[in-house]
Amino acid sequence: VPDTLKDMRLYGALLNAYVGAKIRDKAETLMEQMRNKGYCITPLPYNVMMTLYMKLDELDKVEELVSEMKQKKISLDSYSYNIWLSARGSHGSPESMEQVFQEMDLDPRIVPNWTTFSTMASMYAKSGQLEKAEQCLRNLETRITNRDRMPYHYLLSLYGSLGNRGEVYRVWNIYKSVFPNIPNWGYHSVISSLVRSGDIEGAEKLYEEWLPVKSSFDPKIGNL
């Protein structure tokens, strides 16, 4: 590839490819080359590398990259904060996760999005802090934009994890009112959530509801 084409976009695309394939050594070597060329001036390459370290469960490396960004005065974006939150939560320390959220909340450029609250709810649920988890889910719901299905799937799954079948049904009814056609994944989310919350009868009813409307047969749903 001619040197003139080896710009930030090309390096960034290659970094994404290495991280997607979890080729750590090549990703780290390329990141170092990008530093030396002055290409690491936005959050993007740091976010990509933090994603790699999350996949490899090397959470301390996420902290190192956040520290480097701060040292170089590269502002964290929403994605940076959300990965950092997830890393802190994965350490099993809700308190240190809350410190990141407070920093995020004080950053005038950042508005916490539904992913932020989904991440926090999941971590609180794992640590048994159910009230805090449910508060995060209420905050998540206020961040949903009309045409985005993904938050509903997370809400269904997380309320199922908390064993709150009443909220599973409430969110499901809202989801169906917003989107007339529910994909297989939506049925998978609600049925698995009802199974987890102990409502086998309700799960079976929704399975019967899914059969005539399914877009294609999904064995994962039948195996729930």
UniProtKB/TrEMBL annotation:
Stretches forming PPR repeats: 7-41, 42-76
Keyword Repeat attached: yes
PANTHER family linked: OS04G0544400 PROTEIN (PTHR45717:SF3), OS12G0527900 PROTEIN (PTHR45717)
Protein biosynthesis listed as a keyword: no
Gene Ontology CC: mitochondrion
Gene3D superfamilies, per the entry: Tetratricopeptide repeat domain
UniProt keyword annotations, A-Z: Repeat
Organism: Silene latifolia (White campion)
Listed name of the protein: PPR protein
Family statement drawn from the similarity comment of this UniProt entry: Belongs to the PPR family. P subfamily.
One term of GO molecular function: mRNA binding
